[in-house]
Amino acid sequence: MSEDYQAIDAVVNIWTTEALSHRPGWTDGFFVDKMKGKNDSGGISLEVMLEKMDEAGISIGFLVAAKSGRPGLPGSYHMPPEVVADAVQKYPDRFRGLIGIDPFQGMTGVRAMEDAVKNMGFIGAHLYPHWYELPPNAAKYYPYYAKCIELDIPVQMQVGQSMIYAPEQPCRSVGRPIYLDDIACDLPELKLVGSHVGIPWTEEMIAMSWKHKNVYLCTDAHSPKYWPESLVKYINSYGQDKVIFGSDFPILQFKRTIDEIDAFGLKPQVRKKFMNENVKKLYKL
């Protein structure tokens, strides 16, 4: 298959032994409870991940150097950007990096994000608003958004409900897609990506991506067979230029996700845009 027709996965979690050493202890419990499948808590090598990507017809994966919470919040961890940068350096044709945002790091975090882009090869920013219990239109994020505009990189953020990793202390869902309306109106030059489909507010996320030229929707973390029908229709028709593919591996497995998408019978040109062309244009690959 030509690389031009292969998928580009815009959301992938690095799952090496080194990467897992920086993640909290909820990993297996979360996947068993929420995702109906246990993942190897010992990790998998980059080579095994690439084999899985090849099997699914995925040419490139965006690895997330996540910053997902303050100390004390359930599931809190920061993935060192060096872990992702080293993987990208080892396989530059197969991986790209997204640098996480922690709004409570202030200008120190803004400068670190700039360094990651200019000196470590990261191509975009990434944000989990739920883990800060701070909606994405809050003032603390705006210095990061302004820097993203200067660097000409998109910022990807989880919208919809929070994924509850610790039931004894669940996080509030602060990522309503409608909050992107404020950001897009304030900063029309900022390239915004709402990930995780927006469930249970998918219609809201569709509306935001349709209204704003600079807002896009990413389909990661929720199995395609459970997507709302309105999302499939949006991808296959008037929203065909505004949606990008993601898995959030290993929350979703590569091949199973691609197979479920192909079961929709998308128009060939639409599938090419959704799986490949839209993300290439957005991230200037």
Annotation, overall tally of beta strands: 8
The largest sheet, given as strand count, sense and whether it forms a barrel, is: 8 strands, parallel
Number of helices: 11
Distance between the termini: 19 Å
- Multimeric state of these chains? single chain
- The SSE order reads EHHHEHEHEHEHEHEHEHH
Mean pLDDT: 90
Shape: globular
Measured by DSSP, the beta-strand proportion falls in 5-15%
- Percentage of residues assigned to helices: 25-40%
Structural class: alpha/beta
With strands numbered from the N-terminus, the spatial order across the biggest sheet is 1-2-3-4-5-6-7-8
- Radius of gyration of CA atoms, rounded to a whole number: 17 Å
Low-confidence stretches: none
